[in-house]
Amino acid sequence: MTRHVDPGLGVCYYPEHWPSELWADDLDRMKEAGLATVRIAEFAWSLMEPTNGDFSSIGWFDDFLDLCAERSMRVIFGTPTATPPVWLQRAHPEILNADRSGQTYDGPRRNYNYNAPAYRYYADRVVEQIARHYGSHLAIVGWQIDNEINCEIDEFYSEGDHLAYREFLRAELGTLEEVNRALGLTFWSRQYSDWSQVRLSGRGLHDAVNPHSLLWEKRFFSHSAVRFARKQVEILRSHVPDSHFITTNGLFGNLNYTELMKAGLDFITFDSYPNFAFDVDRDLAADRLRDRRWSWSLTRTRSISRCFGIMEQQSGAHGWTSRMMGPAPKPGQMRLWTMQSVAHGADFVSYFRWRTAPMGTEIYWHGLNDYSNEPGRKMQEVTRIGQEWAALDDLWGADYQAQVAVVRTYDNVYDSELDTWHGRIERPSDDAVFAACQLSHTPLDFVYLDARSSLEDLERYRLLLVPHLAMMDEAMSELLRAFVEAGGTVVFGARTGYKDSNGLCPMRPMPGLVGQWAGVKVTDFTNLGQREEGLTATWDEQRLPVPVFSEVLEARADDVEVLARFDADYYAGEPALTRRTVGKGQVYYLGACFSEEMVRRLLTETGLVSPLAGLIEAPEGVELAVRRKGERQWLFVLNYQDEPQVLRLPTAYTDLLSGTSEQGEVEVEPYGVRVYAV
Amino acid sequence: MTRHVDPGLGVCYYPEHWPSELWADDLDRMKEAGLATVRIAEFAWSLMEPTNGDFSSIGWFDDFLDLCAERSMRVIFGTPTATPPVWLQRAHPEILNADRSGQTYDGPRRNYNYNAPAYRYYADRVVEQIARHYGSHLAIVGWQIDNEINCEIDEFYSEGDHLAYREFLRAELGTLEEVNRALGLTFWSRQYSDWSQVRLSGRGLHDAVNPHSLLWEKRFFSHSAVRFARKQVEILRSHVPDSHFITTNGLFGNLNYTELMKAGLDFITFDSYPNFAFDVDRDLAADRLRDRRWSWSLTRTRSISRCFGIMEQQSGAHGWTSRMMGPAPKPGQMRLWTMQSVAHGADFVSYFRWRTAPMGTEIYWHGLNDYSNEPGRKMQEVTRIGQEWAALDDLWGADYQAQVAVVRTYDNVYDSELDTWHGRIERPSDDAVFAACQLSHTPLDFVYLDARSSLEDLERYRLLLVPHLAMMDEAMSELLRAFVEAGGTVVFGARTGYKDSNGLCPMRPMPGLVGQWAGVKVTDFTNLGQREEGLTATWDEQRLPVPVFSEVLEARADDVEVLARFDADYYAGEPALTRRTVGKGQVYYLGACFSEEMVRRLLTETGLVSPLAGLIEAPEGVELAVRRKGERQWLFVLNYQDEPQVLRLPTAYTDLLSGTSEQGEVEVEPYGVRVYAV
Amino acid sequence: MTRHVDPGLGVCYYPEHWPSELWADDLDRMKEAGLATVRIAEFAWSLMEPTNGDFSSIGWFDDFLDLCAERSMRVIFGTPTATPPVWLQRAHPEILNADRSGQTYDGPRRNYNYNAPAYRYYADRVVEQIARHYGSHLAIVGWQIDNEINCEIDEFYSEGDHLAYREFLRAELGTLEEVNRALGLTFWSRQYSDWSQVRLSGRGLHDAVNPHSLLWEKRFFSHSAVRFARKQVEILRSHVPDSHFITTNGLFGNLNYTELMKAGLDFITFDSYPNFAFDVDRDLAADRLRDRRWSWSLTRTRSISRCFGIMEQQSGAHGWTSRMMGPAPKPGQMRLWTMQSVAHGADFVSYFRWRTAPMGTEIYWHGLNDYSNEPGRKMQEVTRIGQEWAALDDLWGADYQAQVAVVRTYDNVYDSELDTWHGRIERPSDDAVFAACQLSHTPLDFVYLDARSSLEDLERYRLLLVPHLAMMDEAMSELLRAFVEAGGTVVFGARTGYKDSNGLCPMRPMPGLVGQWAGVKVTDFTNLGQREEGLTATWDEQRLPVPVFSEVLEARADDVEVLARFDADYYAGEPALTRRTVGKGQVYYLGACFSEEMVRRLLTETGLVSPLAGLIEAPEGVELAVRRKGERQWLFVLNYQDEPQVLRLPTAYTDLLSGTSEQGEVEVEPYGVRVYAV
């Protein structure tokens, strides 16, 4: 059966942090504010199993759940495996994660590894006990697996991981000969001659590591986490009603969400904290997009589940006692950020948290209520959101509209993290694409491709930006070619296809397989240093920045147009950007990183820039987004600025939040939001 | 019996660093220069016990002491426990300190922990042997326990510390239930279910630590050091004459000096190195107060002993071979810094060191004599100080005069170190108070409160500044209220009283207990980010900076005056500073960090600014201080500048140092000093 | 027999990285390009001994060598000990190097230590097997020991090192008493009472270490590496023809090359990567000399072997996947850098590498050919170099001409690395000397002195710059005095001679022994902080910077001239620079660090500046160098700039590279080179 996210507002709550006398009042006030769902229990292992195998208090949350049921509050129950109890850690120190040098992490959270047999045994057992005990409780509607899988750390080097990695490689690659080949171990004499020698990378001098090993290690870290989650899903599914959904929360590293979803999750939820943009340690001047940058993460979230949830939506100042310090959100920002989530596809938004923790590392992760429990402006603001939420009733399930997508693969993401040459070109291009699309009001999606991807996955788009897929296999090249032949447009960036699926560099002209049908060859290439900053290429008399990396191109066929040529250095006048018509579509190849100006020009050239221009005129300071369901469309206007922004509406639209009709010149207040039915 | 610091000048000397043939000449030249006291032996364990239990050379210093006795040189003998010998370290590696990850420290100094049974056994034994052997030597007048307790590192995570911490918590908290409650271990599932699980914090991801545990750990580190010192005091007291004083040197972290004094110390001594202000790695431009900032530390020292000693007073360039590099003090600076110490309450000043070490890590910690042993300008300068010292004969025992004090508690100091939110507000307020008082010539004291404090401890003051006591219990609130009722003035800063004595945040309106009698409530609060820099509040048309943190206040009673209101942000116009009359006194509450301008305004408002204005007119570039004994007063003028400073004296005063009478406009030379009898 | 470096061009090649089908083609193309030598095998241990003791594939390179022999390609065979195989590392983890805290390094390269008995056994065995098998192959002309000894890390703290250090100290110092004395262990109670206590330094708090111990440890690290190399030389020599040369490559730390040469090397080779000057992480603006700075390293290389080889000469962009990112060299730079090497004494230049690695950490260390193996501009450039090389046929063996030398000793180099006070004066003076000589076209040599040095080693020079030899023993002082008496000039810089050969500071006036014959005494001294930046001294009305450190001098004899006096601070007017005639020569003493202006003035004063001015007029932007053989001279002109530089030739010279005659005003193109027969 397909289970969707339940639309609504919710809140994260920790009954164990206060006397039970407070619970009923807390729940009543949640209801009043429009918060109908409550997430609990994800850090409460030691309450339900205070010593090894003692499950006499497994029902610790029963009374609380009964109070919820009485009030028709819906409960999301978290499996508590993100914080193993101290008794387990002391009895089985091998459950602790370790760094590459073998030193273990202790400390209060996410200190475990996924491969210690003891951890897997105890985690499975407590999840099973919980599923058995709570599975049938009426208040519960769904489950959260663990909490923020791979948050804080996404690398695992405990002894259990070394052993599991060995088995993983054996299963994936079969023979030691293939391991030696695939991991390039001839280099520097690192071949294995016996399976017992296989281990994850150790601490190298100056952190030197074989990149192909590291690629496989990242795949292994993801695999371990996915297997860990899958096991919990299986246990839950065998005990809880079919109607209950199962999800997990947050987006983190070394984790392939395509695979994670296949482990049995019904949808993904994200934890959205845009206030990090204003943390006191962040250089505010360095990023004009600030909290708007969270739309990038929401776009990633949507690539996993078109409609999704926000399990933790920021509701106050944030910080730990040990680090991080964000100011209190300004009045209006919580509402703005809530609607930012909704605009991008969230149908469920749950605030973190009901009341600021009175103890522990997170006493500065402020909730809707402060320590004092006296109602203040945050409760007023959430109550307003609760009231407005009702006006969006028809919206749920509507789909975010984008014609342009960025193509990514997890392998390339991993590679750009482990390989600084790859990473240094990936990040500026990502920034350029995001800024160009945001500021020109051109909605954007991500598409994560893998071996199972098909043309269907791409059909909704007209333009695919493929910044720097260093690893590109034949299937992917052919898929993109088919997309073009069918009428689509693809833009490749520099360094496409110079690696194979292990990150080895095969003997063939760059840009590898796509070069053949894009009709280009790279004849020279270089990264740009400080001397070459400001390099441009000229396209029809427009000088466009081509930063960070240069590939000097050569057209391999007569029908390849050279659109832009480099303006300087020893390759001045050489081709920097080409275009070729292939079938009904077109393929561009850019021998550089993307700049914001270049992306804008490409959007213009392809006629896909600012698709909402007919619906609304809006300044760069606001974000626009559209969700559509059948014939109905909702147009979101999000003002991230602390100053009013002026829109121009060609015709009268009703703002669903206020219920008022607006037309012509409309001033949107600081942090203001509109949801127009259009 | 009460033992006071012996007034005089002294010097630190290491007989073991040179052939014994040099000793007599060195001592003769000390006497000549006016240095009558010599500290020895604090790093000489391996000379007195070269192998385990071999005390045949325990009398290694006998000959040297005899030479001292012949010349009536007074000797302070150091127990040598700061540098355990290598044989002990090799035989008992468990005596080494370890970091939070469990890795031990080796290395040349302060590498041990206070809780290894072996260390305690061997340290006690060598101290006992020393006390027995040297206790009755005529040359000795006093003892120094260890050396710079908690210098270099003040955290201890060896296995012995883990075990001792367990016993400490059991003694302090009694039951595991109370441990779990007091340390907030419900958060993130960290409850203990058996005493054997209790350990100090381990290495967490991103250094995350439970703050309440860390608070108790800091208390434990202090407790361990105090117990270690107490044991040495007990051993010494049972063997040395009653007349001998016992002290230790320096001010360091995680050490409660109130408790340390109760271990049996007669007074404290400080190690004063103001030349650190000019270290080549220090950003000179960042601190206009430079060497003058050492008056802050001298103020802390005075809070422990009204009259105290300087065991190590800088006499040359400083540095280790591995780090630190200070230039040679300019001519006059050694004299200036000596008088800075005296002005603040030092009756004894001992220079570090007689001659620069010819070997080891400290070959750049320059002494009065250089390697060459040829007399130079430093010996000339100290000889001048020795001659001037005689003119101060009546001064000793005179009390530093201050009407204003800053209130502190060790728990709050610890909390501000472990909790970045607390620390970030503490430091700028400290700086503002110090600068405002220094530059306005308003003498300042510190008062460290604890559960045993009484109104008597506060009676000498008219104004108490209480910047940010996050932890404030009922007793302290009541004590401060009594102070106000009796006619005093108290100024609280933001974040007062939001934590209990474990650092947990109770459910009550801020600012907690003092809010009731100060008549205020905090209705909203936020730290300030970069966007909010420059925030001010207006007090009678004067715009005063209110940096770092804002608490929006609400007056809770009619008799509460709102003195200043915020000028900007969403709480513009809301109260920032209130005042209320309580009994015969007044209480202010400032919903912000202190700025220098705010402190100056408060000092002016309370009529306590510049109390010496009638005695002298002085520019900001000099520091003024007064010590008083009975009817007699000594006025110190300290010129830290490399340019002359001009004073104006209303009447003729005699400068005791030069013996000349001065009146009217007086130019004080660069680095110059005056001690006027007034 | 004396074995010289074989003149010629070569290339580094890894047959194991590609199918054997490619080898013949690769070799043919090398020959075509003029690359007649090929280095192989230095990372191929696991191919030749895939499991413990299995030497059945010891002949892995036979076929390749046969292909070389057929083409008369000369082969340099590397012993593969820089990358021990994984089977060895797993079977004997004690072979791994460790840091000071005892944590081992794993990771792909140079992860071993020189003192583990197991490593020495296995390394010797594989070298012996290789020597036996390949020693008589016709293609082989020479051997490379290991690869880049002490590269990446030059400190070793494994258990094997601790034990070997103990034996080293026993051999060098004889008794524990002498160890305690020489290492200054009285300081901080660190005396040993039993040999079993002796270990290398452990991890100290704030990295504090006894500097004398560290000096001995550095000597020990060098000793260990030299012993390791010597053993390989011995094994090779007992199996390979006498005509084969033995060398090793690169210049690295904690390695005394004077001693290393005595281990039996025939000459040294350097690995020259000037493109690091343009790495994206390097602050370009911070160093105007950029790639020209590699002439400093080539000067060091020449001090070891007057004529030497370049085993690895940069041929493309550089980088690892984990760090480092250099742009592609501009057209012409590879040729420029090749000729920079030749100008300084290289007779053999081997490019790194034939083709970019298709796998491993170094996929971005680009070779002459890219992954694609399609010929490009780099192959064109090297082919041009190959053609020009023939015109230099008579040059080989010609000697670089310099009248000025900088005097160094390994002990002082070590001391300046371990002692920050020493290092902070060493580096700015080095920079000043280098810049002054480079920009004034004054060729420079280095002379490394030790106990075996004699006047002969100095006779070729007229001026010795002796910047800051803190450690100066009587023999060296007397040697330099003899040099002066014979007519030479010596300039000492500040801090000369304040340490003995253990780094202890003896009781004598500074500047120690040389002060007696230089006729000066240091009466006061200080490092300069930020307040004293810009200090100058005046010499005949010229104000010359005297940075970083000041020694106030006193002339000790009537015949000592005071040339310059300090202009500011409390020692304004005191002597800063003195000169004295001793025998037929002169000795200068500068009580400061060298500034570029001061070095230029000293070169002018001694008449040694710009000795080539009669041959050529050249701007600062180019480097000039002369090599001479008998009556013949070759004048090198190297243009490092990206702009043309104009020379003026007084008469017609033939540029050997182009075969054209030039005279008068000559424009040298960007990155251009001339080799004039003059």
List keywords for this structure.
eight-stranded parallel sheet; 29% helix; nine-stranded mixed sheet; 678 residues; 25 strands; Rossmann fold; homotrimer; alpha/beta
Give structural notes.
The structure is a homotrimer of 678-residue chains. Among the domains of chain A are: 203 residues, 3-Layer(aba) Sandwich (Rossmann fold), CATH 3.40.50; 56 residues, Golgi alpha-mannosidase II (Immunoglobulin-like, Sandwich), CATH 2.60.40. The longest helix of chain A has 27 residues. Chain A starts with 7 loop residues before the first strand and ends with a strand. In chain A, the strands form 4 sheets. Chain A has a 9-stranded mixed β-sheet with strand order 11-10-12-13-20-19-18-15-16, sandwiched between helices. With 678 residues, chain A is an alpha/beta fold. In chain A, α5 packs parallel to α8, α13 crosses α14 and α14 crosses α17. In chain A, β1, α1 and β2 form a beta-alpha-beta unit. Chain A contains 17 helices and 25 strands. The model of chain A has no long low-confidence stretch (mean pLDDT 97). Chains in contact: A-B, A-C, B-C. Chains A and B meet through α2 and α4 of A and α14 and β14 of B.
